[in-house]
Design goal:
The chain has about 375 residues and is α/β, with parallel strands linked by helices. The protein has helices spanning about 10-30, 40-50, 50-55, 75-85, 105-110, 125-130, 150-160, 175-185, 195-205, 210-215, 225-240, 260-270, 300-305, 320-325, 345-350, 355-360; strands at about 30-35, 60, 90, 115-120, 135-145, 165-170, 190-195, 220, 245-250, 270-280, 280-290. It folds into two domains: about 30-315, Rossmann fold, CATH 3.40.50.11740; about 320-360, no CATH class. It has 16 helices and eleven strands. The chain has a five-stranded parallel sheet. Strands 4-3-5-6 form a four-stranded parallel sheet, with helices on both faces. It starts with 7 loop residues before the first helix and ends in a 9-residue tail after the last helix. Bound molecules: iron/sulfur cluster. Iron/sulfur cluster (SF4) binds near residues 317, 319, 329, 339 and 348.
Length: about 375
């Protein structure tokens, strides 16, 4: 069978799950709002066409699951400040290039002559630092729990290799505190969460136990194949209908309850929790990671701080509300017109995992939610 082709068994199972979801939603007697907090899930759900085939009472909303999208203007502004220094090489994941700060983007800075290089892993920055001893090589360290261990490992490797010119502009973020913020916000109504498979590989399911314990909400760790997503949605609707919130793992072939303790140990050795600014969500207590004192010599903000004053922007971009699940891209008057991937007006359209980019690429047709 060709990759991606569905077997007869898969189709039968999908039909059974759909029938069960439809039955349970009737039992519920009200719409059920489920949020995904993983950009890859957002894209996978669109790609599988699940929004179009689920009953309209199952509302799928997207949360702050794309690390690039939640990176605030102030971070990009600081990166631009460093990029303007002739002795600096910035290394970054490609998604960051077009994210607008308050004074422009990294790709615009590169066009003006800044040395900005795309890397696929934080570790790729180390050879660049070794080959350019007269330069300061600064990796733009954004990401969630998924990426933080690799960033921490890059710092450890730099120390081992005696690299004195490798630094981080460090801003990794933690997903659970952002979920708590959304649940504490009376405007964002969420009945259950499709939990991020990649993040859970590191954190394990334990990190999400606060959902049923503190908020009475279910969560299901989901994989990325259509059937895995459908099964996770079915489980969430079932728990919501029965009023029995739990954390379940529908991605057991990859995610263990305890997660990856070795990756967490690397992360914990280098980083400690700190308050962090999220685009659209504001400052969230203990939702970020900062380098511990013993690793602070790799923190460019500690070694050579820059001070930026955000330039107020007049923009109709509603990314902040989109990231909180309080608006859909179609509620934004710029969507698909003044804002498209080729010339994005906001970060949610820039990243391939951004909600607006996913709606634009896969979902400009009919939607079951948001009008
Ligand atoms: S469509 Fe563009 S301008 Fe509108 S919310 Fe999304 S990213 Fe912002």
């Amino acid at each position: 069978m060709a990759a991606g082709e569905k077997s007869g068994d898969d189709r039968t199972l999908a039909r059974q799950l759909m029938a069960e979801i439809t039955r349970l939603i009737k039992e519920c007697g009200r719409p059920v709002r489920l949020m995904e907090v993983c950009g890859t899930h957002t894209v996978a759900i669109f790609r599988a066409g699940l929004r179009q085939v689920l009953p309209p009472e199952v509302e799928l909303i997207s949360g702050p699951g794309c690390p690039v999208c939640v990176t605030p203007d102030s971070y990009i502004d600081a990166a631009l400040c460093y990029g303007a220094m002739p002795e600096v090489i910035l290394t970054t994941f490609g998604d960051m290039l077009k994210v607008p700060g308050s004074t422009g983007s990294l790709s615009e800075a590169a066009a003006r002559g800044a040395d900005v290089r795309v890397v696929y892993s934080p570790l790729d920055s180390l050879p660049i630092a070794a080959e350019n001893p007269d330069k300061l090589v600064i990796f733009l360290a954004v990401g969630f729990e998924t990426t933080a261990p690799a960033i921490a490992a890059s710092v450890m490797a730099a120390k081992e290799r005696g690299l004195k010119n490798f630094f981080l502009l460090s801003a990794p973020k933690l997903v659970p505190p952002a979920m708590k913020l959304l649940l504490d916000d009376p405007v964002t109504q969420v009945d259950g969460f499709l939990l991020p498979g990649h993040v859970a590989v590191v954190t394990g399911t334990e990190a999400f136990m606060f959902l049923p314990r503190e908020y009475g909400r279910p969560g299901v760790v989901a994989g990325f194949e259509p059937l895995e997503l459908l099964r996770a949605i079915y489980r969430l609707v079932k728990m919501t209908a029965a009023g029995t919130p739990r954390i379940e793992n529908a991605y057991g072939r990859v995610v263990r309850p305890e997660g990856n303790p070795a990756a967490r140990a690397v992360m914990d050795a280098v980083y400690e929790p700190t308050d962090a600014d999220w685009r659209g969500l504001g400052r969230i207590p203990r939702s970020g990671l900062r380098l511990r004192d013993s690793w602070r010599l790799f923190d460019i903000m500690a070694v050579r701080p820059v001070h930026t004053t955000p330039v107020p922007k007049v923009t109709a971009c509603r990314c902040g509300e989109v990231l909180k699940g309080q608006a859909t891209p179609r509620d934004c008057r710029l969507f698909g017109d003044a804002c498209v991937p080729e010339h994005a007006a906001g970060p949610c359209m820039v990243s391939v995992e951004g909600v607006c980019a996913a709606w634009y690429k896969y979902g400009r047709g009919a939607f079951q939610y948001g009008g």
